[in-house]
Amino acid sequence: MKSLVKQQFERISDAAVSEGEVTDEDLAKVVSDGLAGAGLPVTSKILEIRTIRIPFAYPLFSVGYEKQFARIDEWLDGLEGVLSFGRQGLYVHDNTHHAIYMAQAAAACLQGDGTIDADAWHAHRKVFESHVVED
């Protein structure tokens, strides 16, 4: 696997995380321990850890975002071995169960040799369009 991107909600003090008291390595350990606890231990060498700390789990839409998102989404779709999904990756205001479904769909598209079944992914993207946010 070339890269793993994970959205992580922390139980660590928000102030500690946003002020940098919690390092990228600390957050990576939380993710690694969580994956191991779920039966998905990280066994390969980690080459880089990078976190992006954002104040909101849901994207904040601005007028005209669709055109900008479409350009970025098209560019990302052309990158071999890259999937962008979830609330931030697809710029959607979906519920948690939708985000989990997206992750399961992404995993289903990952082939044994590490490649991505692009046709299957595009079919899943069509299904994502039917998601209805439930408050």
Walkthrough of the structure:
The chain is an all-alpha fold and about 140 residues long. It folds into two domains: about 55 residues, no CATH class; about 60 residues, no CATH class. It contains six helices and no strands. It is globular, with a radius of gyration of 16 Å. The N and C termini lie far apart (about 35 Å). About 5% of the residues are buried. The mean pLDDT is about 80.
Features:
135 residues, mainly alpha, 2 domains, 45% helix
Care to give the gist of this entry?
The chain is built from six helices and no strands.
SSE blueprint:
Elements: H1 14-18, H2 24-37, H3 65-77, H4 86-89, H5 96-109, H6 118-128
Helix pairs in contact: 5-6
Mean pLDDT: 79
- List low-pLDDT spans: none
Strand content: under 5%
Shape: globular
How many individual β-strands? 0
Question: What's the tally of helices?
Answer: 6
Measured distance between first and last alpha carbons:
35 Å
Helix content: 40-55%
Order of helices and strands: HHHHHH
Largest sheet: none
Count of structural domains = 2
Q: What integer value in Å does the Rg equal?
A: 16 Å
**Secondary-structure-derived class:** mainly alpha
